[in-house]
Design goal:
The chain has 4 helices and 2 strands. By secondary structure, the protein is mostly helical. Its main location: membrane.
Length: 179
């Protein structure tokens, strides 16, 4: 039984090299399908750069999703303050009668509209799909691909995560979610 996953019409020296063990195959490595067959060093370098950029773009999409969530929450808060006719500070802060520190009023629950949830779901779809493809690529145990994934996540997080510094108010933001 031939387990090489190579095309039988190709000469043996150009068959796909697929390994489930750690490897550094460059020439004749195949990823995800026989069509992604690396035939030159330039092709391998292009693959490494492409995987690196895929991870960076994934992190940027995560940031974009967070920014969109913040936007719809801001829009909701703005619509509440306009509908109540009071300024944002007056509506959200109650003064204590004993002269203590002001405190925030309870925020009304917010559920995105169908259109907003569709956009949020599209962000999740892109993130999940890219993550799944990256997981499949990592399962080739190719050192260059794995390093590209690691360094791409570092650069992508470095570039896109400066928004998370500050007060953490939700369990998810504090890292206390269940999954």
């Amino acid at each position: 039984m031939d387990m090489s996953h190579g095309n039988s019409t190709m000469p043996a020296e150009h068959a796909c090299k697929i390994s489930m063990l750690w490897n550094w195959h460059t020439i004749d490595a195949c990823f995800l399908s026989e069509q992604w067959h690396i035939r030159s060093v330039g092709g391998y370098v292009g693959t490494i750069i492409g995987v690196f950029m895929l991870v960076v773009v994934l992190e940027l999409f995560r940031r974009l999703g967070r920014e969109y969530d913040r936007k719809i929450v801001r829009d909701h808060a703005r619509s509440i303050s306009v509908s109540t006719g009071s300024a944002r500070d007056d509506a959200s802060i109650n003064k204590l009668s004993d002269g203590g520190e002001p405190r925030r009023a309870a925020v009304t629950p917010f559920r995105p509209t169908v259109a907003q949830q569709a956009v949020r779901s599209a962000f999740y779809f892109v993130q999940f799909s890219a993550g799944y493809i990256l997981m499949l690529l990592a399962m080739y145990y190719n050192g260059g691909l794995i390093l590209a994934i690691f360094f791409g996540s570092y650069v992508g997080f470095f570039v896109s995560s400066w928004d998370t510094v500050g007060e953490l108010t939700t369990p998810e933001a504090r890292g206390q979610c269940c999954c």
